[in-house]
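Researcher: Next sequence.
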Amino acid sequence: MREYYITKNDSGQRLNKFLEKAVPRLSGGMMHKYLRLKRIKLNGKRTEAACRLAEGDRVQLYINDEYFEQVREEEAFRRIKTPRLTVVYEDENILLADKAPGMVVHADEKGDSDTLIAHIQAYLYQSGAWNPDDAASFAPALCNRIDRNTGGIVIAAKTAEALRILNDKIKEHELKKKYLCVVLGRPSPPKGRIENFLRRDEKRKQVTLHDRPVPGAKTAKTLYRTLASTKELSLVECVLLTGRTHQIRAHMASIGCPLLGDGKYGRGDRNRACGETGQLLYSYELTFAFESDAGALQYLDGRTFRVRRIDFVQKYFPDFRF
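Model: Next structure:
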């Protein structure tokens, strides 16, 4: 018999999700069979796969030892000796990281394992805030993601409960994000709203914009305002009212002001002249604006967090302060 004691990190998730990670060799079919046979119990009693776990619960498994025998490849975070991580904010439930442009958040199709989540896990592991051997199921996880060449705030949940709450709040648009970008030219008008329909082309990894609904397209809405301008460039703040792929990049290009450095929607000649190989776009501000109870994260309601420095702002608009 194996017994798992549910810690705060593991609480709030369904039993089946816990078992998928704690006992990866146990198939879904066998799990349901053993639940029916009462060979998997919760606090000594019969339970269901959908049961939500609470801190202090005990999960007992009366199953063969073969399900616990496993040889795992070394996790990516264990190979990181010095985490590259800028922490904007951290408490017992969440961590806000300032992702540098050029870093991927998760392993991509190229198999890059030098990821933001790996560095976050390494940081928490080395600081003693997270011990994967004590929490058999839950590992710190990202709640949102941004493109490789976009920088800015990414949210990591340190507990299963925090991940569940934040996923719900993001889905309900109760987290507000602001972006800064450097664009070519001057937007006209300097402040406005862009609204149309955006369709993603999976093969080309690019999006197209349409004035009318077309098959596969979704509504895309962006608010923008110009903060500063030079003869050739403008610093623009954007607020996403919808969160579509490449939305800011495509929308600013649609009004004749593509992002500097953007290889998909921008101007290659201007990018090369300035030596920019990635879009100058940063998710610089995050506000928790809960419209309903957030449970264990209610204390975050109304709080706003910003990054301290953006290199491309200092480079092209050194006198600007935000």
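Model: The chain has a mean pLDDT of 92. The two ends are 58 Å apart (CA to CA).
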